[in-house]
Specification:
The protein has 149 residues and is mainly alpha-helical. It is built from seven helices and three strands.
């Protein structure tokens, strides 16, 4: 993987190189985390410079996609291993809701309404219900309580 200062060699990129150094970006793959849209707010960075920086990064990305695919997979795996507190709270709320309504079928929209206090996407709820041991799916949108198996 190439170093950022090997790609951005012109003196015009000096403010960007200082920004990268202060934010811990050393290699081109680190720029995946870089908020390019916020660079315009940095001192000494004009919109034209930010545009050139971003275009250069996209060109490098296009020329070396295999280097970034591995990083994307690593980031996705790390995110999957990290439990989300909102989903943990949603799971306990859903289990209580399903226990209270154990005698009927529950649609995903009802389950979404039962989760209070945080925003959880329906897709995340559906994935949570699919994995839950206390819940069985009738189809992709309807579930019922089956107790702790």
């Amino acid at each position: 993987m190439a170093k950022i200062n090997e790609i951005y060699t012109s003196n015009a990129y000096y403010p960007f190189l200082c920004y990268c150094e202060s934010h811990g970006y050393a290699e081109m793959r680190d720029l995946i985390r870089c908020p390019f849209s916020k660079l315009k707010e940095e001192p000494d960075m004009t919109p034209a410079l930010v545009s050139r920086i971003h275009i250069t990064f996209l060109a490098y990305l296009k020329a070396h996609p295999q280097e970034f695919l591995l990083e994307k997979r690593k980031a996705a795996a790390a995110a999957a291993r990290t439990p989300k507190p909102a989903l943990e709270e949603a799971e306990s709320q859903l289990e209580r809701f399903f226990q209270q309504n154990a005698s009927r079928l529950i649609h995903i929209s009802e389950a979404a309404k039962a989760v209070t206090g945080q925003k959880v996407k329906r897709a995340d709820l559906a994935a949570l219900l699919e994995k839950a041991s206390w819940c069985k799916a009738v189809d992709g949108t309807t579930y019922f309580y089956c107790g702790n198996a």
